[in-house]
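Q: what sequence does this backbone want?
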């Protein structure tokens, strides 16, 4: 997951490959709560690992459930419908799928058996309405106090006297989560008589209620319903663990890749989506109908979809989106590529989600050049006549971030900046990595920053830090030469055997991961920093055949979303078209002193004079070699770091980088 302040997505052209989606958030958190309320142990497979599910798991542990996790498999021993912990303070982040149902379940359980619970979240959660659910729970006799503004969290639940004979009335036109919360909670108190819920007004987001009813059935609760207005929990209902349950992939998350296929998937190279398909129980699978209306070609089967571009430009549509409220956001970005104005109606629920999504989408679409009209329950989008590069504010809303990544396919070939990309962790932590795995573009469109300089100039430390700040890949070209040197030393190949050294370089089996380097399956990070290996690498690198053998390996590191490469000829030979070239310099005396401190800290005895002499000899050798001599590129920015800290150097390079992109200062 990208945790950088922003993520720049370069212009993208096409997409193909297979995407395996994470588990559904809506199903995951419902299943976790049901397992926590049931008697017995439930094994949950393919659970979504996200901020929202972690919030729910933490809450269940606080309430006394035994929770064991192993990757995406979780074993939960439930409470059997009764509280074992009578007091807790629960922090639920911005997870509506945790706040609403836990409020209902803990309210009825504390009213039945005593207890006091405080529920709070992030500031945005305290702006999301919950008053209609509280009003319904108070009809049951639950005692609930607002700890802030009436109608909104935070809340205190503190017992009460249950009254379950009269129907419970709840509004259905603000959020279906209120009805879902009651459906999940009321089986806990249905022993004496059946309990009826009456929905006031038009129920929105009906497919999400369908998910709830389907899962209740899996846990032993057969809800009787009269259309979408009246739901009855039978007397004597009791949660029973199904033993095990699989979470299907998230259909809302599928919408981004369905849209991707419609925009950039071609006949021979479709986008294949696995984990959700024609057999899905999620209402958002109906997004495929909307995508087809806009021109996408979609085939499907149990657990899979394949999507290709059909009509182009896409067809403008007018659509009632009540049945796909979350996925409909993706249609608003697809509208950027349509042949007219697209209008999405009946989306009032967008106003009370993680942010006011109608306002947010309108604001960010306008940044791209679109003409947007918004109302209380609709948005209308007309594509730009000219796309403009935009820095997209994401409002701590995962769906805003994921939707607008698709704007990188704009015909003007403008990049898109996504602010706070980490917010996708709410439902799809690896979204951007998944996107980049199937997205395709010209190699020349993938940005490169080169950082060259002499031995011990700090170029590697600088380049690594810049890569981390931008979320880019990092190439330590020196490690390739040191690995060649180490492998040659192990194989007994002489420093003068150009052909033999080239063969060693061509056969390297290297793996880079988590700032560690493996050579032939052995972790060699520390060995590559040995002085004798560094000296050998300097001698090995003079041979043209060795440099040629390593060329393709270095070029292969240029991958989305970008690359920072350090070495001695990155800007002059390997990536001569790099958007920013930095050449780091420092005096031999300063570099010798730095290297001396490094070696002493590792318990290696040496002298500054010896190190300085060695560095000066390497400099002379590197500058005079016939193959790629050490020198700054003509358009390189020279950075003398003799008296600068690493942070100051990083700040300077990032300042130069901002000057070379269309987004201005981050």
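A:
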């Amino acid at each position: 997951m990208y945790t950088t302040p922003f993520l720049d997505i370069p212009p993208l052209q096409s997409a193909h490959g297979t995407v395996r989606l994470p588990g559904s958030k809506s199903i995951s958190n419902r299943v976790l709560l049901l397992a926590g309320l049931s008697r017995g142990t439930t094994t949950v497979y393919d659970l979504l690992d996200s901020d929202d599910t972690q919030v729910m798991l933490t809450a269940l542990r606080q309430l006394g459930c035994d929770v064991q996790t192993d990757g995406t498999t979780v074993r939960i021993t439930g409470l059997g419908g009764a509280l074992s912990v009578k007091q807790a303070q629960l922090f639920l982040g911005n997870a509506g799928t945790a706040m609403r149902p836990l409020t209902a379940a803990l309210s009825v359980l504390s009213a039945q058996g005593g207890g006091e619970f405080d529920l709070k979240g992030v500031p945005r959660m305290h702006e999301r309405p919950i008053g209609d659910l509280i009003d319904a729970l108070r009809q049951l006799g639950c005692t609930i106090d607002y700890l802030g503004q009436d109608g909104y969290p935070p809340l205190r639940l503190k017992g009460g006297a249950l009254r379950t004979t009269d129907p419970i009335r709840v509004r259905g036109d603000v959020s279906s989560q209120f009805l879902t919360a009651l459906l999940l909670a009321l089986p806990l108190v249905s022993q004496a008589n059946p309990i009826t819920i009456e929905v006031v007004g038009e129920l929105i987001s009906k497919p999400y209620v369908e998910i709830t009813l389907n899962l209740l059935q899996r846990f032993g609760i057969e809800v009787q319903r009269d259309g979408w207005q009246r739901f009855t929990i039978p007397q004597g209902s009791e949660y029973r663990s199904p033993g095990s349950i699989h979470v299907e992939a998230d259909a809302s998350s599928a919408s981004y890749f369905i849209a991707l296929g419609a925009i950039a998937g071609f006949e021979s190279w479709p986008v294949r989506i696995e984990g959700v398909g024609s057999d899905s129980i999620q209402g958002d699978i109906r997004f495929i109908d909307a995508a087809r209306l806009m021109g996408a070609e979609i085939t499907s089967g149990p657990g899979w979809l394949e999507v290709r571009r059909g009509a182009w430009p896409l067809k403008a549509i007018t659509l009632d989106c009540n049945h796909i409220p979350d996925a409909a956001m993706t249609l608003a970005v697809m509208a950027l590529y349509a042949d007219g104005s697209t209008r999405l109606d009946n989306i009032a629920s967008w106003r009370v989600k993680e942010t006011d999504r109608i306002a947010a989408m309108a604001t960010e679409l306008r940044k791209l050049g679109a003409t947007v009209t918004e109302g209380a329950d609709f948005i209308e989008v007309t594509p730009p006549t000219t796309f403009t590069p935009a820095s997209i504010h994401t409002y701590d809303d995962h769906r805003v971030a994921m939707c607008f990544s698709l704007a990188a396919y704009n015909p003007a070939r403008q990049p898109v900046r996504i602010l706070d990309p980490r917010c996708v962790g709410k439902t799809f932590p690896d979204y951007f990595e998944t996107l980049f795995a199937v997205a395709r573009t010209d190699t020349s469109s993938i940005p490169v920053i080169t950082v060259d300089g002499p031995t011990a100039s700090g170029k590697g430390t600088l380049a690594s830090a810049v890569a981390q700040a931008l979320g880019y890949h990092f190439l330590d070209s020196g490690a390739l030469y040191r690995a060649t040197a180490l492998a040659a030393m192990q194989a007994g190949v002489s420093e003068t055997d150009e052909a033999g050294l080239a063969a060693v370089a061509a056969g390297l089996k290297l793996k880079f991961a988590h700032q560690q380097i493996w050579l032939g399956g052995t972790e060699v990070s520390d060995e590559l920093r040995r002085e004798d290996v560094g000296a050998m690498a300097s001698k090995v690198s003079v041979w043209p055949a060795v440099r040629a053998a390593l060329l393709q390996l270095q070029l292969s590191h240029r991958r989305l979303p970008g690359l920072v490469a350090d070495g001695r000829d990155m800007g002059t030979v390997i990536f001569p078209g790099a958007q920013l070239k930095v050449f780091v310099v420092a005096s031999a005396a300063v570099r010798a002193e730095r290297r001396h401190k490094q070696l002493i800290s590792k318990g290696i005895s040496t002298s500054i004079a010896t190190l300085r002499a060695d560095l000066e000899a390497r400099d002379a050798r590197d500058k005079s070699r016939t193959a790629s001599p050490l020198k700054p590129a003509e358009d390189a920015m020279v950075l003398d770091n003799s008296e600068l800290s690493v942070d100051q150097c990083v700040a300077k390079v990032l300042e130069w980088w901002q000057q070379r992109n269309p987004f201005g200062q981050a």
